[in-house]
Amino acid sequence: MDVTEHVESVYAELRRRDPGESEFHQAAAEVLHDLEPALRKHPEYVDARIVERLCEPERQLVFRIPWTDDRGEVRVNRGFRVEFSSALGPYKGGLRFHPSVDLGTVKFLGFEQIFKNALTGMPLGGGKGGADFDPKGKSDGEIMRFCQSFMTELHRSLGEHTDVPAGDIGVGSREIGYLFGQYKRITNRHEAGTLTGKSVAWGGSHVRTEATGYGVVYFLQEMLATRGRSLEGQRVVVSGSGNVAIYAVEKASALGATVLACSDSVGYLVDEDGIDPELLKEIREVRGQRLPAYAEARPNARFVESGSVFDVPCDVALPCATQNELNREHALTLVKNEVFAVAEGANMPCTAEAIEAFREAGVLFGPGKAANAGGVATSALEMQQNASRETWTFERAEERLATIMRDVHARCRATAESYGGASHDYVFGANIAGFLRTADAMVAQGLV
Ligand code: NDP
């Protein structure tokens, strides 16, 4: 069978079957495009229809979430869990609560998760979930009742050996607490390894909160080192001001960079003196305020409501907010301003056209499925600690995270080279390396 025709027919079929899922099509196109050299080298993957099977989730759940708001009114949302692949371990991937969530979003995130999780070298399958619920402006009681209703339905699909969710946009440690509480109540089991991102006080791992943001910066450090550079003195721009963004700002600053800007869905914040990570954390995490409060507290900071955070000239850009937030126009502005490296903290934040623009300009580019793998890797460390009933120190967990990110970086480079690409083509390396590990397991496990 001709490999190019095979891949094209799989892609055409997934578009035909699920025409409304544009983000899933985008994520699949990016991976499938890179797989041909692996399929040529391993005809057994083609015979076993691995690509076709990987593009079809093992199971998809769509469910009703009824709950009552503070006025006693009944509200109804839609919940999702896509259990994409269990070839390498239990389904693993976060839950997103955001009004934009639909099945196509969850499928794109779950598909990316398969390759990311495989790339960590850990025993993790791929999945993702969430709901079209908007946590903004909701009271604590409303959030709790929503989480309880969500878990009342989802609990029957979960388990430490089956499916292990975590947080994502709109789901932080508060939501994980409510979800876990309800899981425990319904099942009558304190099965800590069923959810990750728990508070350290009751079964969580040190460094899980920081892991995705820190991991992106560790990955970036490795990328820069291949060009003889370090983070010292680099001007960095981060998008977002949530979990991933905050800890990317903190680690980049600790390693000597000046983080000039970050953002949210309303606008962006510039601090010419470098963003103070402690103040950013205090405002976002402790006081629950928005970025203008930071601008008011610092003499050389301002909040801008028009344009894009990527208009701010920088050496390094770290998109850490959401998918497709950085388009070709933003990429060309960054290139004009002589950006040197871009690493994705968010999932698929750069459009295909933006990535192409970076590639043409020779900008070092770290794709999310490699650069942001530190979060899920530390979730696996949390599962490991839960299974052995241990709690590691912060230092031990961070050391493991740093090693994992170095290994992910090395794996991308080595795989890209051995399949005929350039060693700095991290997109190609990550796609092939994640695919090979999953495909080998699928072949070994037979037609399931
Ligand atoms: P948070 O909810 O903590 O923060 C999200 C940030 O992105 C907020 O600043 C939010 O702004 C902004 N944002 C969200 N949606 C939009 C939008 N449509 N347009 C503009 N800005 C937006 O989420 P996380 O930091 O956890 O996640 C950020 C990204 O990182 C996501 O792509 C997620 O999938 C990815 N990721 C997260 C991991 C984790 O461990 N948390 C692991 C790996 C990847 P506002 O407050 O105004 O809405």
Automatic annotation (TrEMBL):
Keyword NAD: yes
GO BP annotations listed: glutamate biosynthetic process
GO molecular function, one term: glutamate dehydrogenase (NADP+) activity
Residue stretches making up the Glutamate/phenylalanine/leucine/valine/L-tryptophan dehydrogenase C-terminal domain: 205-446
Keywords: NAD, Nucleotide-binding, Oxidoreductase
Active site per UniProt: K128
Binding site for substrate: K92, Q113, K116, G167, S379
GO cellular component, one term: cytosol
SMART domains: ELFV_dehydrog
Site (Important for catalysis): D168
Domain of life: Bacteria
Keyword NAD: yes
UniProt binding sites for NAD(+): T212, N243
SUPFAM superfamilies per UniProt: Aminoacid dehydrogenase-like, N-terminal domain (SSF53223), NAD(P)-binding Rossmann-fold domains (SSF51735)
CDD domains reported in the protein's UniProt record: NAD_bind_2_Glu_DH (cd05313)
Pfam families listed in its UniProt record: ELFV_dehydrog, ELFV_dehydrog_N
Subunit and interaction comment: Homohexamer.
Homology family: Belongs to the Glu/Leu/Phe/Val dehydrogenases family.
UniProt protein name: Glutamate dehydrogenase
